[in-house]
Amino acid sequence: MSDNNQRPRRYLATGAIYLAVAASVFGFNIIRSRAARPAAQPAQPDQPTVVSTTPYFSLTTNRTYSANETARLWASYQNIEYLDFRVYHVKDPSKFFKQLDDPHQMGEKEKEAVSQGYGVRVSVLERAHSLKISLFSAVKDYVRTHLLKEHRETFNQKFRKEDEPTRTPLNVADYARVPLLNPEQKVKDWREKLPALDHDYDSRMILLGKQDPGVYLIEA
User: Fold this and answer.
1) Domains in the chain: boundaries
2) CA nearest 71: which of 57, 59, 84, 80?
């Protein structure tokens, strides 16, 4: 009977020793992990987003227009409220293009200004912009070829609201501030209001109207 009573006691004592050892090891590991943990670094304040305030604009077109079509171009801009446009009819296109070193390349100053404003994103955005213009022109031309002029006028009068005037004529004071390139070849001029764009890569269509056959220079 005495041996039977001592066995449970020995088992309990042995189990208690194992539990004590396991608790000691567990507690030691917790203390060591806390000691090895680096001190919490203070939270860094959020860096303010730098927004460019340098005025910038560019004019682009992806095609030529016949005398029966409404010529148009697209203006991309930032931090500009309006642009003064002047349209010149080039009398001698051959002489005009021969005087240009490279009609498809900007000067170093303009290239540097554009790179500072848009950085490395310019090439990607230009490709996306060109694709958007091409798709828009293709859809618009397709719709126009399948709709009669009378139907388009009826639709515009019924569903489109009158837009606020965005153009105002230029006066003598504007000419004094920026002289004309060639007064004899100027065919039209105006001031175009430019609403703020939602994104840097967006653009606004500028209508030039129908023109006589020839080469035209757009100054803005």
Assistant:
1) 56-103+117-219
2) 59
